[in-house]
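name: query_chain
kind: protein
chains: 1
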Amino acid sequence: MVANERNKWLALALLALVQFMVVLDIAVVNVALPSIQADLGFSQENLQWVISAYALFFGGFLLLGGRAADLLGRRRIFLVGLVVFTVASLLAGLAWSETSLIAARALQGLGAAIISPAALSILTTTFSEGKERNTALGVWGAVGAFGAVAGVLMGGILTDVLSWEWIFFVNVPIGAAGFALAPFLLGESRDEEARSFDVPGAVLVTGGLTVLVYAITQANDYGWSSLETIGLFAAAGALLAAFVAWEARASQPLMPFSIFRLQTLVGANVAGLILGTALFAMFLMLTLYMQQVLGYSPLRTGLGYLAVAGTAIVWSALAAQLVTRIGVKPVLVAGMTFLSVGLLYFTQVDVGGSYLGDLLPGFLLVSIGMGFSFVPISIAALAGVKDSEAGLASGLINTSQQIGGALGIAALSAVATSTTKDALASGTPTPLALTDGFEAAFIGAAVIAAVGIVASLVLVRNRDLVLDEPVPALPVLDAP
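structure:
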């Protein structure tokens, strides 16, 4: 293999490793929350901010991070994000109070919002559209699918075997290695036509998305119909409307609306929003069910996800092959269908449930759904996009998934909590009441995933994609 080709795959390995670190941190905290609460003396109402602070800054700054990569240099922004994320991870592990940990988690979210779209746009501009890029995006999708469940798995292992601090410390050597290797493995690129940075647009879209994510994450506390929640959603809508109005007249817009001419890109973002909504909530509900109802320890809870983590990689690799052969739409529809069936299976979880009977079949179905969804969404979200807009497209798909995740956790947690409270009020024992709540949430998630099937059928089309001969297996790298 020529050196240039070898360097491409080495670059992909680096990008995938860093993205795995970012995706891991979305879920790794869930299992460790009880230990964090006990050690740092968190109040119950502030504990959610260990998760929400990360989501708030991640979701709010993704679009800005993606477009900044296009305009200021993709490798440069990637390195900035690595420094921010790595330092924030170290500070989170060293946290001594509620405030210090929440602040570190917010800084982590900011670093992730800079890294993720920059990394995906580097991948897009490094690999040619068609079979080569589909292979690379297949790896990227596999990392997303695996990282989503590995976070829960590693969170349980690290918390039980070492301590909760290590769920953050583990990022430090990865971030340092990534920073050292990036200048040698990643080329620099940017939108050469850009002459200025759209500061008003950046402020408006970042403010609007941040307020939107805050409104979603706080809706359960304030009440979905409360004046506070309505006011926050109205403020987010006003800021985003102002952003659209400004972009329409800006000479060098942060977001050229011409990117939405690609229907498959739009369809991929809708599917990504739906996927995030269903999956984020599912992992939270399953984790709580295993710990609160079945009495699993953090370690046993994490190990329970091995069935998903191990098989999702296999299905993601197969999905990358199938996308090139038959197109995005049939693979994505199959993925959303398997995800819907898996979520529907979880609606029968029982107070005295077993892993083999109540969880494993659903895990195996969901793992197919994840592999067959993440990969085609990643490919479709960047299909036909100009190199100059790769960061923007990357920021869009990440934003869609993160906002979907925040919405899913907030909405389906509200469904589970409301159902559980009603059951407790009628005299139902606590374990059964909790199970009733989780079942209601799984029904909601299954319905949302089913909407994803319809959206994939209606909005996604193959003619925006460059398809080629079947994708070969990933090459074996020659020795340097």
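note: The chain has one domain: 3-185+250-464.
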